[in-house]
User: Fold this.
Amino acid sequence: MSGVLRALAPLVLCIAAWLVSAPFAIAQMRFTAVPIPDPACGDRCPLVIQAEGRITREAARDFVAFAKQVSDQGRLINIVLIHSPGGSVVGSMMLGEMFRTLGTTVVVARVNRGGGVFSGPTVDSRTGRTIPPGALTNATCNSACVYAVMGGRKRIIPNDSRMGVHRMQSEESFGFDPVSNRAVSYRRTGSENEVSALKRYTKYMGVDPRLIDLAESVPHEDIRVLSTEQIRGFRLGRSKL
Assistant:
């Protein structure tokens, strides 16, 4: 842990156990190496890392382990494509901190692999055209995923990709009630201190912390899709390299 996360370590430890903002039914984030689609380089195209799925507290560790594994191939460049519904807020901050430490460029996009967990449709939502396997296409980065993207040394959000924010929320389990025959849980939103910690992280990453005010104004059950103007205005990213 380094940078802002070290400075915020006591608070991070306090909130780490519960800050989760995506359903557990979605598979946890996995990393794959995919070639940059370019007919000119054939089967020797540079490789980038594609990150898909729910972000867990182990995501930063898993990312580093995978990057070390594939870097031996000699074709890996320091770009991550990300497509995620969100997940652990602390895990996303840790992944973002790792991106910043390594100087990684983060792009909200994906190489279509023709299906899979949270891979999305194979039809372009704007044109209705079929997206062939292996082609670069739009992606979604919602909820806590936005905090991971903030860590990118460069942050690219193409105009046809989607970023959405909403209020932090945790669900704490209190066991099983045999009378009602259901699990007993309690949901709560982030405290003032926890929201302040997220704002400090956001500012450290060079993003306007007013983005957190917007996110916290949106009920957790909803999602506010950021417009191109908002993405640019909050300094969250740009549409092209």
